Amino acid sequence: MFCYQCQEAAKGTGCTVAGVCGKNEEVSNLQDLLIYTIKGLSILANKGRDKGVDLDPVDHFIMNGLFMTITNANFDDQAIKAAIKEGLVLRKTLKEALEAKGVALTDLHDCATWYAESDAALEAKADSVVVGVLATENEDVRSLRELITYGVKGMAAYAHHALNLGKEDKEIYAFTTKALAATVDNTLSADDLVALTLETGKYGVNTMALLDAANTGAYGNPEITEVNLGVRNNPAILISGHDLSDLKQLLEQTKGTGVDVYTHSEMLPAHYYPEFKKYDNFVGNYGSAWWKQKEEFASFNGPVLFTTNCIVPPKGEQLEKIYTTGASGYPGCTHIEADENGNKDFSAIIEHAKRLAPPTEIETGSIVGGFAHAQVFALADKVVDAVKTGAIKKFFVMAGCDGRMKSRDYYTDFANALPKDTVILTAGCAKYKYNKLPLGDIGGIPRVLDAGQCNDSYSLAVIALKLKEVFELNDINELPIAYNIAWYEQKAVIVLLALLHLGVKNIHLGPTLPAFLSPNVANVLVETFGIGGITNVDDDMKMFLQ
Ligand code: FS2
Ligand code: SF4
Q: Could you tell me the residue range of the domain that residue 499 belongs to?
């Protein structure tokens, strides 16, 4: 195996024996083969785009398959194998449809033609170097190909959530297959791939806008909300991940059953949506970011539903109380499938909750969030006044991901060290490094404004663009906003590319720069966009405030 797609890549270069995330060699290689198969399907889909071929099943499969390979989403070898086989069946149907339209299918890349008669042959293919990251020998070309692939994975996750709410944009699918096919095209130069990387950011913005419209269209605009951190004395289900349509179905099905529902990690922002406030069994948020789940799931007592990543491999007794759905999966856990209409039957987890004890309280009090674009626009006068009077000197976008590395304490220390006339704009699970600190407020505006999940980084960009308009600036970089972003997995990659597309410069990325950036590719990002890493709180604070 070789994987270097996330911030925890072993030794800062790549996982080669087993993933730091817990992914074993078999699963890693199968994920590579799934991506390889998806790239082959993409080549074929591109040939059918303007030929009137029905590409919906292929596009939807690609979005789900990409999502399955995101860090900490799916550890289930059987589920990944089944997806590869489904891809091969779809490929056969697609080839027949293309041939019926007179499309020539000659000189195809191996990823569009490989086939395995047996499971053993499929596993042997997965283990071969040609399907993996190291198949590309030139480190700069490899770096760009992987940067595009990871950006597209993040995009696929967001497009998949939107699709679950019935919203899609076929241009996003067309770009996805174009980009993936480009990553196996040896005729493209490094410059072509750089251009494609930037174009990926453009579609990242479109995808986050699509998901924002899907979420707010279905559940209303997030609003200022106090989220309870304590517990009640009822049996309960903990829901994690990012999929709001799963949460909606779970709340509908638990209503009146005596089973409470709490959010964990990236599901916290669901409390900000008006629609979910209607459920009096939707009690609050339990615990913190994804990497704390071992202890927090134990004290929660009840079962846990994963709608997406991040899963920390569960062990022993924990296995049986974990349920997965959507693109997520873990061997030995119960997976809940949707029917053909997207409906899911959560009765098994609800009955399971009734047999277990209520959650043990680990915190009390509340936290405040809900500062997505509509809520911030509603407060615009107040915010603009605070900037004009100098009450707010600077905003710090500290969005992205949290993680288990000790070096991430930097973000807590940084938040604590920020001058009192600064405000943190956050989104994603990165917030757990500072959302419970007593940072106070500035004239009633909390010093940590949480827009929502990682995809709601889109809201932060919309807010920045609005401020640029209000202050009549020519360039988004003239705003008093600094970007100190923490990354972990591939959704953070698409968020970064989206910000670059919007023209944001001088973004600092930590705790370490991606292992998949070769020195030359990193240089391009430094020279073109002023991207930088982090050092220590004191030096970085001086740099950001000068
Ligand atoms: Fe956090 Fe994990 Fe949101 Fe990432 S819960 S690192 O998936 O996508 O962010
Ligand atoms: Fe390693 Fe991250 Fe890949 Fe897991 S996802 S194998 S931790 S680089």
A: 374-545
Task: Give the pair of three-digit tokens for residue 372.
Answer: 């997505």
Ligand 2 site-directed mutation target among 1, 6, 488, 489, most atoms within 8 Å of CB = 6
489 C-beta closer than 6 A to ligand 1 = yes
19 shares a domain with 117? yes
Pairing of strands 441-442, 445-446: antiparallel
Residue 241 CA: nearest ligand 1 atom is 5
**Residue nearest ligand 1's atom 3 by CA:** 454
153 CB less than 6 Å from ligand 2?
A: no
Q: Of all atoms in ligand 1, which is nearest to the CA of residue 309?
A: 7
Pick out the residues of the known binding site for hybrid [4Fe-2O-2S] cluster: 242, 266, 310, 401, 429, 454, 489, 491
The whole-number pLDDT of residue 51 equals 95
Same domain membership, residue 441 and residue 319: no
Round to whole Å and give the CA distance between 105 and 122: 23
Last residue in a domain, options 354, 383, 401: 354
Q: Are residues 306 and 349 in contact, defined by beta-carbon separation less than 8 angstroms?
A: no
Q: Closest ligand 2 atom to the C-alpha of 20?
A: 7
pLDDT at 528: 96
Does residue 213 fall inside a structural domain?
no
pLDDT of 343 reads 98
- Cβ atoms of 245 and 385 within 8 Å: the answer is no
Report the CATH number that the domain containing residue 310 is assigned in CATH.
3.40.50.2030
The predicted structure's pLDDT at residue 280? 98
| Judgement on whether residues 318 and 274 belong to the same structural domain of the protein | yes
Give me the mean pLDDT over the 54-69 stretch: 98
User: Is the whole model's pTM more than 0.80, yes or no?
Assistant: yes
Residues of the binding site: 3, 6, 15, 21, 242, 266, 310, 401, 429, 454, 489, 491
Give the residue-averaged pLDDT of 380-405.
Answer: 97
Q: What is the pLDDT of residue 144?
A: 98
Q: What is the CATH number of the domain that holds 29?
A: 1.20.1270.20
Asked if ipTM goes beyond 0.95, one says yes
Q: Are residues 491 and 405 in the same domain?
A: yes
- Mean pLDDT, the chain, rounded, equals 98
Co-location of 413 and 525 in the same domain: yes
Nearest ligand 1 atom to the CA of 71 is: 7
pLDDT digits (tens, 9 = 90+) for 185-234: 999 999 999 999 999 999 999 999 999 999 999 999 999 999 999 999 99
pLDDT computed for residue 375 by the predictor: 98
Tokens of 82: 């089944």
Q: Is 332 a member of any domain?
A: yes
Q: Domain check: are 385 and 507 in the same one?
A: yes
